[in-house]
Amino acid sequence: MSKITRRNFIKAVSSAAAVSAAGFPMLAAAGGKKQVVIVGGGVGGATAARYIRRADPSIEVTLIEPNKHYYTCFLSNEVLSGERKLDGIKFGYDGLRGEGITVVHDLATGIDAGARTVSTKGGKTFKYDRCIVAPGISFVDNIKGYDMAAAEKMPHAWKAGPQTALLRKQLEAMPDGGTVLIAPPPNPFRCPPGPYERACQIAHYLKNNKPKSKILILDKKDKFSKQGLFQQAWDRHYKGMIEWVKAEDTGGGVIRVDAKAGTVHTEFEEYKPAVTNIIPAQKAGKIALTAGLADDKGWCGIDHKTFESSVHKGIHIVGDAAVQSPLPKSGYAANSEAKVVAAAVVNLLNDRDPGTPSWVNTCYSIATPTDGFSVAMVYNLGADGKVAKVKGSGGLTPMDSSPEARAREVYYAHSWFNNITKDIFG
Amino acid sequence: MSLRKTLTVILGSGLLLGATHTSAAPPTASMLADTCVGCHGPEGSSVGPAIPSIAGMSAEYFNTVMKEYKADGRYGTIMNRIAKGYSDEEIDLMGDYFAKQDFVRYPQQLDAAKVAAGEKLYDKNCSKCHDEKGALADDDAGILAGQWLPYLTYSMEDFTAGKREMPKKMKKKVEKLDSAELDALLQFFASQQ
Asked: Residue A326 contacts by C-beta under 8 Å, 6 or more apart in sequence?
């Protein structure tokens, strides 16, 4: 005998409603299951889907994502060094399907906040009670000559997958003694320490395979995340191999490329590297812009307690696309935000207060297979209703931490990867 | 209850309310625990290879450990920085939450000969306190049975290097064992399913 819980009661009512829907349309509406539509199956979208189902299995969750697989950006730099295979950062959606989430491989092309519908390239329309938009990033044309065709010659590899494979292939093909040019973007952008960890991982490959080669980083910024720790690691492991040039010294970093000629230009200089990695400036993913969710800078304003859009009610934005500072645009932050959003959405759909949020970020960078370091922070909702760092918490690996501690951090980074991807994709 | 004691309790709770009073309710236990599982694995059971599982740990021990990290009284790579982000009340909530979760064990690559040697050493040296082969959620120790070997190894390194304090009885035993014996012992704990 099954007990009549509230959930079972709702289930019973809604199935009865379905049977008699034609005769009693009002009842069908009252008893119908709540619908959440999630746009984007990356870290934020997939995590939110799982956590909504976990908290309230009576809610129907549909996730719309064009790709059959997701390649994590985090640890994709290890693919560039050869320490990890591309398959090691590849994840599918069977885990989500197994938990009763409807995964639709299609591209969301429009969101009607008034009618509460999401429409797709495939011609489908999905009705929602609440929508979660987790579109990641898209690129800003801040470098002349850098378009989709140019990205096939000078990969950005800032959305992992084929671009990562392409950059790895170019590194494998380049001659010993060549230069790898990395052009990091201006703030704000996905994964702030990423370009500098990338320099480490590429240097790790070159040191062991093409030791006469060099890495030149032409930055759009004058300082960067975990700078002291990275520069210390470069000095320790890759002395003389990596040169970082701040924006001030080049008049603003890379401004133009000629992908056919293979040249890269700053205001005063021209370079012809063996391999070029251009990481353009960023904004929210396309659907967020199409749906009018973004501000004039291209990012989505939100209420920090619920991550509900400050433009359209009923739509929540999670992950890199949101204006979530002081939370960073990182994988862990997107995962943490998604859990807060999932709780808020479930509570709001059940006519409860959205709840008090708590967030965390942990971000590891791997300089060599035995030297890693991290930054961490705990966040809560400040009295002003904004995300706030919890005073006294968090911070960086100390500059003087021992080699043993650094080796542990690499092993912890790999454990973190295994655990968080299990948390995201099931 | 004496008058003095009653007054102390009233005053104490009053102070406590004053100290922790904020406009919002604290986050729920699951909201707080969800911030941990990105690293420590689903419901606190790590899929490895090095980050420890915290599922099933006694609430008492969880509290002890977190408060030690918070006060920099225990060596760690990252946990000191993270523990400082949570109030004692929040740590209580998280401890109760993880104590209720099952410790899920995953197979590890171990050396069968070392595991066998470790079992003998365990019977002789550790079984009095870490009973049931380290599977019990004791109030003064974590669950050792099936814990990830690299984490057990790091912990033992910290104990023997003096970075973490050992209980007197444990110290006496550990000092008699060489590094190969300690490794065998840890392999035995890790091998428990």
From this structure: A377, A379, A387, A388, A389
